[in-house]
Specification:
The complex is a heterodimer of chains A (110) and B (216).
Chain A: H1 4-20, E1 24-25, H2 26-36, H3 48-57, E2 61-67, E3 73-79, H4 81-109
Antiparallel strand pairs in A: 1-3, 2-3
Helix pairs in contact in A: 1-4
Chain B: H1 4-18, H2 23-42, H3 47-58, H4 61-106, H5 113-140, E1 144-146, H6 151-182, H7 187-208, E2 211-213
Antiparallel strand pairs in B: 1-2
Helix pairs in contact in B: 1-3, 2-3, 4-5, 5-6, 6-7
Classes of the chains: A alpha+beta (110), B mainly alpha (216).
Chain lengths: 110, 216
């Protein structure tokens, strides 16, 4: 299981990256993160919504109420222009951290 | 006998009791809870067990509520900042008026009016500093980054910019009056006007440009 701090830090970039593929809703976002991480990245489901609301307040994403095919009410979220810029920044920073770590690991085993 | 709707209702009451203030987040959470229960039931659990697991997955009402309240607080802080800023500029204007009127009528500021005038000017400049911090980052869309000045330094910078701006306006005035009265301007007046325009631009930049270009 991944540490709580890392899960929290990765929430925003993951949400932004998922929404970059198209609009989505809370439940689907959680399921997709779970599936993509083989269940290792587990959010407390309810904690996703305050994060989404905060991101909406900051102008990174927007929301609309809609309906599923089965007629269930859902709140769909999609990326805004500022969200795309924030996502690019996150990718840049996480890539940097990843490359530093990978470099250090390589040096250790050479 | 497990009553599904009654249990969901009780869960809603728990969330409300924990302090969720607005209905939209609660509705969203309830939709999530129902979807999770549905999934659990489809995977073979009975309704009661599915409900218990789903409630656990959604999380503790107090923790979720405190997270939602943080978002509310951020919004309220911003609204309060704008409110305080507007109050500041109104009080600032009220404080500068007596001194300005006395200066216009008697060409001096006496009886402590200069102190009030300075305080009023500071409040107005402080409002501009708040305005820049809150609204300009949105207008400039991330192409520039904040120079990270303290509010006092930013206020001083705006104040200095406005003083330069006013000197610029004062230097332009004789030429403008001459043009209005005589339809032409003397060379000396023109020179002052050009210098005044330069000061006007410099003052505006110093006062209202709080950002530096992002490093490559």
């Amino acid at each position: 299981m991944i540490r709580k701090e890392l899960v929290a830090a990765s929430a925003e970039p993951l949400i932004l990256s998922l929404l970059a593929k198209g609009e989505s809703y809370g439940y689907a976002i959680i399921q997709e993160v779970k599936a993509r991480s083989d269940g290792k990245l587990q959010w407390t489901d309810g904690m996703l919504y305050p994060v989404l609301h905060r991101m909406e307040h900051r102008g990174l994403i927007k929301s609309r109420w809609g309906e599923s095919d089965a007629g269930r009410k859902r709140k769909y979220y999609s990326l805004k222009k500022d969200g795309k810029a924030a996502m690019a920044k996150h990718h840049e920073q996480w890539s940097l951290v990843h490359s530093v770590l990978a470099g250090l690991r390589k040096e250790k085993y050479v | 006998m497990f009553e599904f709707e009654k249990s969901v209702g009780a869960w809603r009451q728990q969330m409300l009791a924990a302090g969720i203030k607005t209905p939209a987040p609660l509705e969203e959470l309830e939709i999530h809870l129902r979807e999770e229960i549905e999934r659990q039931v489809k995977s073979g659990l009975n309704e009661q067990k599915a409900f218990e697991i789903s409630v656990q997955r959604v999380g503790q009402p107090e923790i979720i509520t405190s997270e939602f309240n943080k978002t509310e607080r951020l919004f309220m802080n911003r609204t309060a900042k704008v409110g305080v800023g507007v109050a500041g500029v109104l009080i600032g204007m009220a404080l500068t008026i007596p001194g300005s009127v006395q200066l216009r009528d008697e060409l001096v500021m006496a009886d402590g009016k200069f102190g009030l005038w300075l305080l009023g000017g500071f409040l107005i400049c402080w409002w501009f500093a708040l305005f820049q911090q809150i609204f300009l980052p949105k207008v400039l869309k991330g192409e520039f980054e904040n120079a990270r000045m303290t509010p006092v330094k930013q206020t001083m910078k705006i104040g200095a910019g406005i003083v330069v701006l006013l000197i610029g306006v004062a230097l332009m005035m004789p030429a403008a009056v001459q043009v209005r009265q005589e339809g032409m301007v003397e060379f000396a007046g023109l020179c002052y006007a050009v210098f005044g325009i330069a000061l006007l631009i410099t003052g505006a930049l110093v006062a209202f440009w709080p950002y530096k270009k992002r490093k490559a």
